[in-house]
Amino acid sequence: MMKLTRNLSLLLLLIATAAPCSTELQAQATATTASERPEALAEDWIKASSKYDGERNRLLADVEREGHEGKFRPDWNSLSGFEVPEWYKDAKFGIFIHWGVYSVPAFGSEWYPREMYRKGSEINQHHVATYGPLTEFGYKDFIPKFTAAKYDPQAWAELFKNSGAKYVVPVFEHHDGFTMYASGLSDWTAAKMGPKRDLVGDLAKAVRAEGLHLGASSHRVEHDWFLDGGREQPSDVNDPKYAMFYGPAQVAKKNVTEPGGAELDDDWTYVNPKYAEDWLARSAEIVEKYHPDIMYYDWWIGQASVRPYLAKFAAFYYNESAKHGQQGLINFKFKAMEEHSGVLDIERGQLADIRPTYWQTDTSVSNKSWGYIENDTFKTSGFIVHQLVDIVSKNGNLLMNIGPRSDGTIPNEVQQTLLGVGAWLKVNGDAIYGTRAWTTYGEGPTKVQPGSFHDTDTVNYTAEDFRFTTKGSDLFAIELAWPSGNEAVVKTLSAAGRPEMRKIEAVHLLGSDAALPFKQETDGLHIQLPSKPTEAPACAFRISFGGATRP
């Protein structure tokens, strides 16, 4: 018996010394990998994703074929023949939606998954203090908490329609790599995990049932490096078991301030060709499954390693849309695409003057984040109306973002803001929808600071600030504050200032049937006002001229 016990003890000792314990195995799996070659970092992701190679290759074959079977080819000379759809120029106002797993922690911003792995950041400190070490609770562990239990896509679509929006652009996949649609290229989708539902697919049906256009926003390409902070410290990002979700997590090599990326010629981050092909296939998958009227991309599609794949996608998308009776468009930032091959989008910013080539601003109702966070602050409906009017007068559209909670509810403050915009558009929409820019955007002392990330820098507008739009033979003068007296004065329309202008026949205040008394004098068009209407951030005057063409 003693000999048997001794032999058993020796056996146990050999087992203990020959194989690491589970704790040691976890430590090995989560150990830092930032020093590995970029090709090696991509390898785990390639291996984990290989189960979908068949479907990926099918989509890539579609891209190749469609990119040469229509009007467009995958080169910028051909793609510069793109024309902005008239429906988009008429629409003017859209809703953007950032909703995903990052709405579960609801802290900091929608960049929570990146910042939680950046050692010493505010979000990193919050995460470790709240949820524990990154080796024990990583971003993947938020997915079961992302339930969307109160999500009602029909109610969302009705709200968006009542806000006056004409198109809706949900984020199909953000930088975090979790798809909000039923992707056939990943295990890590809302259709297979968390809510176990095709969230944006359900919204697409509801939005179109309300007569609104559908867009799709993909931020997949930025995922290439988005979680690189997890490579630089022990974390689950380094565990090959989660490579399909977290990978490639390349260590970014760039000389730009985040988030931004205007200087992509200074970005040397490695992009494995297999990853670029996967991005292309995922974009094509969205087009084939959901047929969006818009494909919206963040800035990194302009990175040098990605651009050739972008040209392939653009040719595929434009040709594929035409096959289905659509005229698709791509929103891009900075100089990611040739100027005429899509529609420029300026993030949280505006322009100082009319841009001859059509453009768009995207910004958010919330001031601190694109996704839902607790204790955020919000823009007023009046602020958004002023922004919309200024942008439309300069030949652009406004795409306004909201961030729903993880359960699928939209904060009441956001709903009320959107409904306030909708109430103004219900009265004054004729001065916005279907209009075009005039020869000058407006007049008055208040100027916007042009460029990205300046949308809240504009000071309050005054009664001297007007913005102009046209439709047919009518000119709309939109006054951005109600004057203190009983008269509005439009200086641009003075009798002496524009001698080529035809005679003004009538002036109406939108929302009222009565024609207003007016007089054209040397210092401007003087309009006698009725009693002040209910509180509104701006009032619009329809100015009718003789003849059948615009002034």
From TrEMBL:
The keyword Cell membrane does not apply. Residues 63-430 form the Glycoside hydrolase family 29 N-terminal domain. Gene3D superfamilies: Glycosidases, Golgi alpha-mannosidase II. Keywords: Glycosidase, Hydrolase, Signal. Residues 1-18 form the signal peptide. It is an enzyme of class 3 (hydrolase). Coiled coil: none annotated. Alpha-L-fucosidase is responsible for hydrolyzing the alpha-1,6-linked fucose joined to the reducing-end N-acetylglucosamine of the carbohydrate moieties of glycoproteins. This is alpha-L-fucosidase.
